[in-house]
Amino acid sequence: MTEIIESIKKIALEISEAIKTKDTGKMDTQNACGDVQVKLDVISDEIVEKYLLATSSVKEIMSEEKEAPVKKNEGKYLVAYDPLDGSSLIDVDLSVGSIFGIYENGYNGEDIKAAAYVVYGPRVEMVVARDVVELFRLNEKTKEFEFVKEIKLDKKGKILGPGGTQKYWYPYHKEMIDSLFKEGYRLRYSGGMVPDLHQILLKSGGLFAYPGTEDKPKGKLRKLFEVFPFAFVYKKAGGFGVDGYNDLLTLKAEHYHDTTPCFFGSEYEINRVLETYKGR
Ligand code: AHM
Ligand code: MG
Fold first, then answer.
1. Is the whole-model pTM more than 0.85?
2. How far does the centroid of ligand 1 lie from the alpha carbon of residue 41, in Å?
3. Which of 91, 115, 127, 264 shows its CA 20 to 30 Å from the CA of 226?
4. Residues that place a CB less than 5 A from ion ligand 2
5. Domain 159-277 belongs to what topology?
């Protein structure tokens, strides 16, 4: 596992350099999910693949940008990753990230053993969740990631990131979001789940919601590359990740690019979600 985390540090350094120096334009092609790719999606995917395939404890890798896994004849862990999450924000210079889920035996929620993500913001930060959740920051002079602190969520936060197209929200979802705002929650939504969820973690709590909607009942965010890794991070930080009814980590992945409604947050807000969705 340590070897994989060390590889992720090298990946983070190289992707961070690519973001600063390479073309931020779009590709003519789409990825396996049908999303328009930017050139940096493809470059980042190649960087991750290069390092993870050279990591002996990795048995298989599966990318959000690929249709099927790349398998090796050695190793123990399956790594599912989104090389450049939020890449549609690249051309407006907002923060983006990389997400890694480290699995054993399969890609269901129960198979995830560790997770990590990298935020490419004004500074490069990396969060690693194993037994505990640790924050590291890149020292630009030494090119080393330095430990900053352990991350723990409070029981209740103050910020709210409500995703999905509001026009298609279910009425009960809208009522819940409106009532949280009436309670005093403040809006924090950039359109990049890595910085948005990172902010909630570091500000000690709140709610990020990407619900199922009338047009997309299964939501947008993908289980393997986005939802399970963050559900693991939040759980280890003392928070929760649910699909409205159940712990996200009890869900199965029906296919590699399977999506699910998802809510991440601290105890108070997640209880509000469970009460709202109960019986719906
Ligand atoms: P991507 O993997 O294609 O970048 O899409 C994932 C991103 C998340 O980072 C973010 O939370 C979500 O899509 C934003 O979606 P929306 O534009 O619908 O708010
Ligand atoms: Mg993504």
1. yes
2. 13
3. 91
4. 82, 85
5. D-Maltodextrin-Binding Protein; domain 2 (3.40.190)
